[in-house]
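Q: Start with the shorter request: fold the first protein.
A: Done. Sequence, then structure:
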Amino acid sequence: MKDNKASARVHSPKTISSLIGLTSTMTMIDCREVFAEFFVDLAVAMKNVPKDYEVRIHPNGKAMLLLMVQDCDTCVLNGIIRISPMRMSHIWIELNGPEEIGPALPGTTGSLPTRYYYALPHQIENALAQLALRMAGIDVQKVKRITLGGYPSGMRQGRVVEQEDPTTRYSWNDSSALWQMPNVVTGRRRFYRQYGRSLKRRSEGLVVCSSSFLGVGEIRLQVDIGSAVGRLGFGTTLKGLTNPVQVNACSVRIRVSGR
């Protein structure tokens, strides 16, 4: 079994096109977020992650799948393009990475340890945002509809509709108990992806957020096999834990390099 404290291995970049070496930024403001984690089969997770990276093994012998769905009032791409609203879904598998705790952002009570992930293409509802990020060389997927399912009190239903075809969507039911006071913290996540056939690329991203965790609850994810989650091979029903989150602001930097 690999050491969970080992660093994610990343190859040196190679310049192979005008897209290589670009760094794109996103500033995301006032976001509602479903933050859900699912323990999944380790062997299946490893099949979905290139050998350049090490899947984190939890004490129960499982890997961790993160589903992070965001509905933001505003997103500014590269300091120029303003998208309102901006809805995104992120499907990430947790990796090993070095122990790191960055400084806390103003207005937060502390900073959480940095976590590391291998990312699927960023799923985006807005066509302009999808086009802008693709032009920057970032791997994204345009989807038809993203909804969180309302305010996180009692039972709610959310979904990501990738296409009208019923085999290309996933949905969830979640129910959270809200805390009397939110936990306002700084969170840092580093994420990686390899993609491309004729033009092989790698992206490395860092997202830093000031977030209010509002409570905790259970989530049941229903997966159509033709969807992005379904194609991972973890099954059609996943049960996990979720936090409803109010994100005050996030800064994101994504750098594209060759491989």
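Q: Next, the second protein, separately.
A: Sequence, then structure:
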Amino acid sequence: MKTIFFLFSILSLFLLSCSSDNEVSPEPTKIPTTTLLDKVTFQGDDYDVSLDSEKRVKILNLADRSYEFFYENNLVSKVIRTSAGDSYTTTFTHDENGKIASFQNKNNSYDVSFHDDINLYSYSDSSLSHKYSLKINNVGDLTEFKVADLKYLKIESWGYTFDETKKGSLWNSNAVSVYIYMIDNNSLDTMLPFSTYPVASAFNSFGNFNSTNQYNEDGYITKSVTFGKEVTFHYVKK
């Protein structure tokens, strides 16, 4: 009886050993990476980009100025603009749909209306001498602006079209062009390096200007030339 028990124990150990040898070790889990903008080179100048832990734009260091963004409830609450040692803060409020409702800087306050049916922001300066209209696309990039000078009865306009089949520099981040425009009432060239979709063309009172773009194998824009202005894009994967 003891012999039978001993043989059974040996057989059990043998079977367990074989089972252990046949087990396949699980492959290590692959951590997904995200392609994020690191910097752009615009007309020979490097613009550095910093993103926060939520992949939102934190700092844009341009050739002549910088913008630092702060957030509340995932919306831009204020931006500090610095240029030549001088800085000022612009604060923003939003409505229940996340659209800009007002902004204030340098003792100036602007009430902003958003027309949902045409994706259009509108506001006037404190003297009511200028009226601004900013049109955006479905991801918040600025597509068209108009400034009506009510004193001299003239209108200035500019705009962009986008290639929505490709990925712009801020594809995995957030749109900031409308905020920058409201801060400076210009800075239109920031659309060329910073947009969710790549710029396909630009237009103004002088005509239309098509963009010549290059992309990498993942569909991200790597180089663009629009009305003679060249931008190259540099990414990191995190």
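Q: Describe the second briefly.
A: Helices lie at 2-22, 177-184. The chain is about 10% helix and 50% strand.
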